[in-house]
């Protein structure tokens, strides 16, 4: 089968087409024919080792010193079950599914095998394969951190970077949880964020949200460009700053902040499982959550897709489609 491989760290041009052996499902696995996948910020960080401050060495140790141990990147997919192992009972051949492989990756290929009990869920009937492929990364990340922040109905939350893959998911989920949502984005994305349900929008090219008189129960940053010191004054007493992509110094400061004030810094690593995917799928089926798709690229233009995500200009998600 054909796959897109990454045999060294670097620019998008390190991604190359290659013929690899088609996987065969084990007894507890399903074989999925991949129709669509995505290019996420996480894919680009792995490819280019573009990590928050202090994490480059740790990332090399986790992913591979000189090159990625998993040469086939991609963590989201939507497709059709092509074969099942002898002990599989949850799925049947022909089922339309979407899945999140997380750090296992492997979605930039024609086929992949995944454990039946992994993060795999049947595709909502009202979503296209492109939309279903984009459901997982942003959705599970936003869901994880909103739950970690203990967002409550009536809370005021500010989402910095509200027009990206995680941000567009966070706006919709925060509204579902009953919060009053303020989205921060660029001028060109104000209408998009408002259309997702944000009660207020702030154009960061014109205003600094930390310099306003408004305070929030939760500030969720998806950009990696703010710090606790920068946002502290914009938090209410007992407020929580959630950094989706925190630097190592910020993470090390968490215990100190907990001892010296009544405002919390929350970060960590988000993991998506079948339960989280089912939650998102059910919301999508009810019309209460829908992934935002910026552009669709064919598999043959994977390099261009990575370049576009690297630019930092995408709205929502970038999808990769196969022609057959």
From TrEMBL:
Q: Which residues form a coiled coil?
A: none
Q: Which GO terms describe its molecular function?
A: oxidoreductase activity; zinc ion binding
Q: What is this protein called?
A: NADPH:quinone reductase
Xref: InterPro entries: ADH-like_N, Chloroplast_QOR, ER, GroES-like_sf, NAD(P)-bd_dom_sf, Quin_OxRdtase/zeta-crystal_CS
Q: Which Gene3D superfamilies match?
A: Medium-chain alcohol dehydrogenases, catalytic domain, NAD(P)-binding Rossmann-like Domain
User: PANTHER family attached here?
Assistant: ZINC-TYPE ALCOHOL DEHYDROGENASE-LIKE PROTEIN C16A3.02C
**Lineage: superkingdom:** Bacteria
Q: Which residues form the Enoyl reductase (ER) domain?
A: 10-320
